[in-house]
Write a structure and sequence with these properties.
mainly beta
């Protein structure tokens, strides 16, 4: 897991060969005005899901993890809290792994929470189980999916 400000994203370009392209998408001057939806960046290798939602309570969110994609979760507006736990410590799956959606949910509780405010991002790898929709009020977030 990486948590940082978008201005420092260049420090992480070498982590994955698609990170530079993913972060450059987030740095577009008009990014905050883009409407919710799916945006193709580089075919199935990189795409973005722009979401706007009312933040949920901690008790309303399940942990999830992915196998095929790394998440770069970037907050455009509002404050988002992400619950976190190493996926190897998640022992209570809340269903089977969905290959189509590349997700499995867990009933386990997070070990800690990270706060993401405007212009902050979290890079979540497959070992980073996360509950991504916690917050108060309106949140606009961009989830860039980077294929492993």
């Amino acid at each position: 897991m990486i948590i940082a400000d978008l201005n420092d994203a260049f420090k992480y370009y070498s982590v994955h060969n698609c990170f530079e392209q993913a972060f450059e998408f987030l740095k577009q001057p008009d990014i905050s005005s883009k409407l919710p939806g799916i945006y193709k960046i580089n075919g199935k290798k990189i795409y973005a899901n722009i979401t706007a939602f009312q933040g949920l309570k901690k008790s309303e969110c399940k942990l999830e993890s992915h196998k095929k994609y790394i998440d770069i979760q970037y907050v455009v507006a509002g404050t988002n809290y992400i619950g976190l736990k190493h996926s190897s410590c998640c022992i209570n799956p809340a269903g089977k792994f969905d290959r189509t959606k590349d997700v499995i949910f867990y009933s386990d509780k997070p070990d800690f929470y990270a706060k993401l405010s405007k212009n902050k991002f979290a890079v979540l790898f497959p070992e980073d189980a996360h509950s991504p929709s916690i917050g108060t009020g309106s949140v606009k977030k961009i989830i860039v999916k980077v294929q492993i």
